[in-house]
Specification:
heterodimer; A: 179 residues; 4-stranded parallel β-sheet; two-stranded antiparallel ribbon; B: 99 residues; alpha/beta; Cobalt-precorrin-4 Transmethylase, domain 1; 3-stranded parallel β-sheet; 3 strands; 40% helix
Chain lengths: 179, 99
């Protein structure tokens, strides 16, 4: 039995973040190093936002992304991920999923919300809030897995963009997930 | 707002990811992982198609994109890139055993 971690694209490729959103030159090492220490096989998921909105997309919140077309795009990618999860599950592997809790797309427990964001992109201060809930891709992945009779793997989200980010808390949460 | 991204991306074969990670991380590369083996042909082609879409977007915005390849998906990836008007990627071959 292998231990397999499906991770948000940007954890292995910070270049996929929105401009201003990268924390590191290449990858978010705290997660990658922990997964390697624990012997996990890494499976990087696609970045729905990069493919859809491009490398120069504006920051966005869940309400902006929650359109039928974006959901179809996410579902197309989710089918690929679900196929690989299904294969690992059939092999009896232990599968976990790690998202990003400040993302409208890859959030696991939290996702950004600002119902008033629209129009000219000149918001002086980020007044979005992080609300409980999944990102759009995660919802579509869960739905795709459900159609295959599979649950969403146990999961958590990276919170390095939270104002009160606590690396020690995150490490404990990740260690609990990977135990 | 500062953003330390390297604007360097390596497209890495699944079989070489573990071998290449330390060096690519040291050099500041972000990674796009190629699909694992064992997938059916349709899923593999769809996975390479979305990989090519990522690569094309990075190239369109002048990011450096290199290939760390084991040959398994070379032709499929090149074909998917060609559909999007992107030529073959330069190979990153300074890793031991890759040159």
């Amino acid at each position: 039995m292998k231990r397999v971690a499906f991770i948000a694209h940007c954890l292995l490729n910070q270049n996929a973040k929105v401009e201003g959103g990268a924390k590191r030159p290449g990858m978010w090492e705290p997660v990658i190093e922990l997964l390697r220490e624990r012997g996990y096989v890494i499976r990087q998921m696609p970045c729905p936002e990069l493919a859809f909105g491009g490398a120069r997309r504006f920051w966005g919140v869940r309400e902006q992304f929650d359109t039928p077309l974006y959901r179809r795009h996410c579902r197309r990618l989710a089918k690929l991920v679900a196929t690989v999860i299904e294969q690992h599950t059939a092999d009896g592997d232990d599968v976990v999923l790690i998202g990003v809790d400040s993302s409208p797309t890859m959030g696991i427990d939290f996702t950004p919300s600002a119902p008033h964001w629209a129009g000219k992109p000149d918001i002086a201060e980020d007044d979005s809030t992080l609300v409980p809930g999944d990102g759009i891709f995660i919802e579509e992945l869960e739905a795709e897995l459900a159609e295959r009779g599979l649950p969403l793997p146990r999961s958590t989200g990276i919170r390095h963009w939270f104002a009160d980010y606590d690396p020690a808390e995150e490490l404990r949460r990740l260690e609990s997930l990977l135990a | 707002m500062s953003d330390p991204r390297s604007r360097k991306v390596a497209v890495v074969a699944d079989s070489l990811l573990e071998t290449a990670l330390d060096e690519l991380a040291h050099e500041g590369f972000g990674i796009i992982q190629l699909p694992p083996g064992g997938l059916d042909r349709k899923t593999t082609a769809a996975w390479l198609e979305q990989t090519a879409e990522h690569v094309a977007e990075f190239r369109r915005n002048d990011y450096e994109v290199v290939l760390v390849d084991d040959g398994v998906h070379t032709s499929g990836l090149m074909a998917a890139l060609a559909v999007l008007g992107v030529g073959p990627l330069p190979r990153y071959d300074t890793l031991p055993g890759l040159s």
